[in-house]
Structure formats: C-alpha cells, structure tokens
Amino acid sequence: MKKRVKNIYYLGIKELQSLCRDKIMLILIIYSFTFAIYIKATAASSELNKVPIAFIDEDRSILSARIIDTFYEPRFLKPIIIQHDKLDDGMDSGKYTFVINIPSSFEKNVIKNANPSIQVNIDATRMSQAGIGAGYIGQMINDEVNLFLKGFKSETQMPVELVTRMKFNPTLDSIWFGGIMEIISQISMLSIILSGAALIREREHGTIEHLLVMPLTPFQIMLSKIWSMGLVVLIATAFSLQIVIEEILSVPIAGSKTLFLFGTMLTLFSTTSMGIFMGTIARTMPQLGLLIILTILPLQILSGAITPFESMPDFIQYMMRLMPTSHFVEMAQAILYRGAGLEVVWGNLVAITLIGLSFFLISLIMFRKSLGTSS
Hints:
Order of helices and strands: HHHEHEHEHEHHHHHHHHH
Largest sheet: 4 strands, mixed
Helix content: 55-70%
Shape: elongated
Strand order of the largest sheet: 2-1-3-4
Structural class: mainly alpha
Number of domains: 2
Number of strands: 4
C-alpha cells in the first residue's frame, strides 16, 4: 500500500515537472485565472453605461426640460435634442439606442390628469441595454412627473408601501456576479484541459508504454494525473479568489473560502476524471480540443452560471443534475454570495462526490481498455 502511494506521488511530481516545461499551458493557466476573470467581470457589464439617447421635445415646457435633464452620465450620454424627421435615420444608423418623443401639450395634459403618453423608441438589437434601459426610462420619467405634480396637487398616500431591499448584492453590481462565475467556468475548463492534455502528452511522446513496463497500474497512472493537475487548478483558484476577486475587483466574499475550496477540490476530482476520459477517446491534441469544445460550452451555459437553473426546460434540469458543475455552481453561489455554511451545502458536496466517483470509475474502465490491461 505504501509503495502504491509513493508511486502515485512521484508520478504526480513528474506531471508537475512536465507542466512546468510546457510554457504555452502555463501562460494559459495564468491568463485564465487573472486577465480572463478581470476582463469578463468588468467588460461584460449588465448595467447601463454611457448609452446614447435622444429626445424629440414637441412640448418645450418646464416639465419636458426637467425630464430631459434627468438623463445624465454615467448611465446615459448627454441627451441630444433632434427633430422628428431625424428619428428614423438616427435609429437606422445605430446612432441612438433610445429616442424619446415628448408630445405637444404634454405638461398641460399631465396637470389636467388627461393621462398623456410618451413614445419611447428602442433599438432592440442591443438586447441587454434595451431591456434594462426601458425599465430605467419608465421609472425615471414617472419619478420626475410625480415630483413635478407635487407643486400642483397634495401628495396622495398610497394604500400599500412597497419597500425593496436588495440582498447579497445591494448595488446590483454585475462585477460581483461576473467575476466569481468566471472563476467557476475557468475551474471546469482548465481542469479538463490539463488532465486530458497530460494523457495525450504521454501518448504523443511515447512515454505511456514506458510507464506500462514499470510496476505501475492504470489506476496509479490515472490518479497521479488527477491529483497533480487538480492541485494546480486549486492553487490558481485560491490565488485568483484572494488577489483578483477580493483585492483588485473589491468583491466581498460572504462565506468561508475554506469550505468553497473544499468543494472545489471535490469538483476537480470529477472534472479531471472527465479530462482523462476525453484524453482516452482522443488520440491527438486537436481531437481533444474538439471534444473539449463540445463539452465545455454546454457545461458552462447549462450549469446555472449564466442562465438561472430554474429557467431551463425540465428535461435539461434533470440531465444537468448528473453533471458536477451544476451542483458546484449552486454550492459556490450559496457560500460566496449568501454566506452559507456546511449545513446548507452538504447535499451539493455529497452529490459532487458521488458524481465524481462515477466519472472516475467510467474513466478508469475506459483507460484500462485503451491500454489493453485488466489490472
């Protein structure tokens, strides 16, 4: 038993040394857990930022001027006043995302309670800005009209007061969400790539046959690649969480980082086993790359990191429950966002462990079959 553990340990050290000599792979690891996370968190923002907006002010009243002055940076660029005949050209050329038409006699009709309308033209090809911006514009115009009416009418007390509290992300900052979700995506992607590439590298260099003539079993060879490549990703995750997320992006971590890293370690057992499985099927690096593309994209899109898990069709939900990444995303959000403890996420940890054991056994069977051994 002691000799087997030593074999697994020294084989893992060999994998780490091989990785250190692979400069391209090292650059990929560094980039994935630093620049890629920073770019994803800051560039792919879901908030409005300097959105071009124009007004057709046919009323030219105090109220219309106050509404126009409500729109200012950084959410919107300084509003531009245009004529009605410039509307179509501006929208067709993509010059404006929003064009708001304030009709004549708007202020007069508001004071008379005549329920006037304001036309909001939206360039819906800019989907994220269009959806979020429509809500912002409606709220801002309603607030300004209500504030204006206070000078003419006594304030009416509503029968129900709606008190809104944003939990876990009070400022609705997309950086808080994007940075951590990108770490989760990189964990899955890098662990599969590294373990699969480690096996392909053995086959391309012809060293897999050298290992087989030694007193080593496929179990030892496979486990050495899993622990060594998993360790690399785990260390990179801890570094990225501390330096990139907390220090550079200033994202507060609500829960225990130790518990999150423990869950990450269990997930890495599953994803590195998946990488071994793909490395067994593929014979070359290009083939492995194609398999990873077919695997990583569904895992990232359907695991709940991008789209809420509950919004997916029931069939997809049942299928993705068999993947470790779905439970990992659920666990990570509970720990890092909501400060959940072991009593909340233990079910996810058990599911990740069972799925990992299943992937490991399947990969081991396939690996043995590819080597033509039964030990």
